[in-house]
Design a protein that fits this description.
alpha/beta, TIM Barrel, 8-stranded parallel β-barrel, 10 helices, binds flavin-adenine dinucleotide
Length: 278
């Protein structure tokens, strides 16, 4: 049932040697499952540039299919093209093209591109079909969009600029994903839209992050997680049940694959993976 689907893992670039050691150990375990690719995030305005490069360089040295994320906000076109040339030279064929967020207080400003659609167009203009371009999608709406329909229109513009497929922000409502995909299809947006899956391992950090990125944790899940307090074993066990059930429903509903936000930890993702029998 899952043979034609794309399963992938997301990493973030560590800041310390200890973090890199942890990443290398976890990637080698995850890679035994033969994912389609590993992606690696990039801090807007180049804030993680060197660490993203170091992570990408190591993944490539292991012969691993790698999809670097690239944000455009705060960067010049020349810088952006330079990074893409670097990746092309490393035999990379997949990019996750994003706008990024302006971190408050960093002073990142200016930049030549304002939206991910402009980055997608730039990549197509300079690199033709060399890169498979992934873009971000928001089944529960991007938090800064004026409304859901405007966000869908903007998503369509990004796809028409040349995106090949999309990865969603994480969510815990299957209905939101199905509705979003249906609305896309009605507008002639035919690209694969792969759900982003966030394993649940820690309630307070998940709640904080979800507020910031506009992902809803349904009340019944929140209340259960809150009730566990500091009992991290119960949070993990309940989280694995909830997220495995979410993935099963998504795959049964026709999702073209799953993209796991691993947070550089193999175990929570692999528990779900194994229970799904991928
Ligand atoms: P866009 O597609 O440009 O959309 C941003 C907002 O602008 C939306 O509200 C949209 O409706 C609106 N908009 C788009 N086009 C127009 C237009 N022409 N006119 C008016 N409004 C418009 N962030 C990082 O910093 N680094 C990462 O590595 C990273 N990886 C991510 C991976 C995934 C899978 C996802 C889902 C998100 C990731 N993010 C990352 C977060 C992302 O950068 C933020 O969510 C950001 O706020 C929006 O990026 P975008 O590419 O979706 O932007």
């Amino acid at each position: 049932m899952n043979e034609d689907k794309t399963f992938s893992f997301e990493l973030f670039p560590p800041k310390t040697e200890k973090g890199f050691e942890n990443l290398r150990r976890n990637v080698l375990v995850l890679n035994e499952r033969r994912p389609a690719f590993f992606s690696c995030t990039y801090g807007a305005g180049g804030s993680t540039r060197d660490n993203t490069f170091a992570t990408v360089d190591w993944l490539r040295s292991q012969g691993i299919d790698t999809a670097p994320h690239l944000t455009c906000i705060g960067n010049s076109i020349a810088e952006t093209l330079g990074i893409l040339e670097r990746y092309k030279g490393q035999g990379i064929h997949r990019i996750v093209a994003l706008r990024g967020d302006r971190p408050s207080g960093t002073g990142i400003g200016g930049g030549d591109l304002s939206y991910a659609s402009e980055l997608v167009a730039l990549i197509r203009e300079h690199f033709g079909d060399h890169f498979h371009i992934e873009v971000a999608a928001y089944p529960e709406m991007h938090p800064q969009a004026p409304n859901f329909l405007a966000d869908l229109d903007n998503f369509r513009i990004k796809v028409e600029a040349g995106a090949d497929s999309a990865i969603t922000q994480y969510f815990y409502n299957v209905d939101a994903y199905e509705h979003f995909v249906e609305q896309c299809r009605q507008r002639g947006i035919g690209i694969p839209i792969v759900p982003g899956i966030m394993p649940i391992t820690n309630y307070s950090s998940l709640a904080r992050f979800s507020d910031a990125c506009g992902a809803e944790i349904p009340r019944w899940i929140r209340k259960r997680l809150e009730a566990y307090g500091d009992d991290s074993a119960s949070i993990r066990a309940f989280g694995a049940d909830v997220v495995t059930a979410l993935c099963e429903k998504l795959l049964a509903a026709g999702a073209p694959g799953l993209h796991f936000y691993t947070m550089n930890q193999a175990a929570p993702t692999l528990e779900i993976w194994d229970r799904l029998g991928i």
